[in-house]
Amino acid sequence: MRHSFTPVFFLSRLAMLALIAAGIAAPLAANAGEGGMSTGETKARASNCFACHAVDHKLVGPAYQAVADRYAGKGDATVAMLVKKIKMGGAGNWGDVPMTAHPELSDADLTDMVHWILSLHGQAAPASAATTGNAPTAQMHTYKTTDGKSVQTDVNVFTGPDQKQVTDAVFHGFEQYNSYCFRCHGGDAIGGEYAPDLRKSLAGGMTWQQFLSTAMAGRQDKGMPSWAGFFEEKDIRAIYDYIKARQLDLIAPGRPPSAQE
Description:
2 strands; elongated; single chain; Cytochrome Bc1 Complex, Chain D, domain 2; Cyt_c-like_dom_sf; 3 domains; two-stranded antiparallel ribbon
């Protein structure tokens, strides 16, 4: 004889299993961030940390993998030390460029972020990321200056050999520079009352890496703010490319010709 309650019994067991599964899944979901990222990585990407750091190569600060390798297996005291270091900022352990303080981040969030960084220990960097953090050797381009001289640069300034239009990156750099940088460095990258002519800085040997570090970290002693968290690396690179084009006299003052005309 079949019992009328049997289907209900099995449905109840299925419901119970579903509740148990949900109970197991809940803490797992709490430990995962957006898009499958860990909570620590999600919080790091939501902050301005990636303005100065990358996972596998040096930007302004060291690669997160390098940090993980240095502090691997050193225990909870190291986690606490790194949390304090990020919150307080400073320089010395990884070079002379100071790290911006982050007092706005809670100890709990920083702890999650540090645990994620340390979890990167032993992960191999891609072949394109050299141990120094430098990019592969860039392609050289030959252009004519505004007065007809031939120059070479690793910056891709124009979209074609006729030099009629600058690249989107150079035009973006023009827009960003003349929206923000001109206040101190002068319009059209000619130097200003409060800050130096950046064309001369590049001509004097300032590298892309130095330019990026200076822009992101700022120079408090000279009144220059940190742009980390406002600009991304690609924005600073575009500004650099624009200034390099001006320094080499490849584009004249004013709005450069572009596909956006």
